[in-house]
Amino acid sequence: MEEDECLNEFRVRKCDLPILVDVLGIPNEIVCDQRSVVGGVEALCMLLKRLAYPCRYSDMMQRFGHRQVPVLCMATNSVLDYIYSAHHHRITQWNVNILNPVALRNYADCILQMGAPLDNCFGFIDGTVRPIARPGVTQRILYNGHKRIHSLKYQAVAIPNGLIAHLYGPVEGKKHDSGMLAESGLLALLQRHAISVDGHPMCVYGDPAYPLRVHLQAPFRHVHLTPQMMNPLSLASLPQKLNGVIPTPSPTFVVCPVLSLFTKPPVGLANPLHGLLPCLFCFGPVRL
After folding, report:
1. Where are the domains of the chain?
2. pTM of whole model > 0.90?
3. Which of 1, 30, 239, 249 has CB atoms 3.0–4.6 Å from 43's, for a disulfide?
4. What stretch of H or E contains 144?
């Protein structure tokens, strides 16, 4: 397989595959439930192929030596389960490697440079609704009235470098974002760890569905942006129009490669390793 072909099919360069295997700690052989043996690199490529673009296992047979569909399925799921069991703590718990005080300050500085009105915001929090097929039982629990679909929900915190800093879920589709926040215990983690080097509290920014806390900021509810507020050029001349009176910080849009987390999974597939989509987060008028 050529380099560009590998990148196109797996979204990973061919020269980086051995590094990825080593970093993830993939074993040399993956033994499936019916005792089929698949090489570690090959099994990882199966997973990458499966996650790179929606496809059937039968579409992967030619690429992987005409292995049977059950073997492809079991090998892919085995690698997926192994990666999750070995590394899920990096996003389901507080990861000091990327969330230490120095790193939090750097994230906040990057967001501030984009025009944000907060100087201590290091990330963004939101919930995402992932549709599933209508289940045969517990339909009311999984039904999301806002989106009008049966779904699973996740809560994630994203940081400016595009990584998921914290992930919670899945929960039933009817759960409100504030309910997920309470169940996740994220506020307690923020109170314990979200402190800058100089001892000041750091915060994440969410939409109006979240409560206002020291470590969690959100815009005013039921506020609509006027066309003038949406136009950056009009904001630049606003102080002169107000005879030198400086207004409060204006809403600023921040495009951040944050995560709506998953491509649509089939029924029951709720593993948080299904590709990332960019999200658009917006700073509304900040409540201080």
Report:
1. 3-87, 91-282
2. no
3. 30
4. strand 143-144
